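Q&A log
Question type: sequence-to-structure
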Amino acid sequence: MDKLTAQQRHKCMAAIRSKDTKPEIIVRRGLWSMGFRYRLNHKRLPGHPDLVLRKYRTCIFVNGCFWHGHLVDMSTLENSECCKIPSTNREFWVAKIRRNKERDREEKRKLAEMGWHCITVWECELTPKRRKETLESIAFTLNHIWLQDHSIPIKQTTKEKEQPILIAAEDEAQ
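Response status: OK
Response body:
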């Protein structure tokens, strides 16, 4: 049984934001300080990604562990270390989290078909102990995506394959 009245519960639930959440702001500030530029909540893309980096053709979703069922096994409906399903009105919450997970999967599929890369950052990955590691991981992934998308394939003939490739600081005489 819920301890709050219907009006109190409505007021609490209405106060939950979908934009400008603390985890999202942490990611935004971290990426901005590393020199990455982005757009917020792009309306034309499926799922309205939290951050859109057009240069990298990448969308970043910053998900709350509870709302998106992080590490929850939906077949057994067991809690995870960062997502506890409420015991009151459990059927409602299980259905809601299941719908959210399915919608997230569908949106990422649509973005991939459009040629976009997707990165999901979980709220539990942004704790003070893990924050720096997570932001560095995002930066590494973005740089890797950019290099992969902008690499130029080099075709070598059989004659070139036999000769060793010189490094910039080497002499031919060695």
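Response note: The two ends are 81 Å apart (CA to CA).
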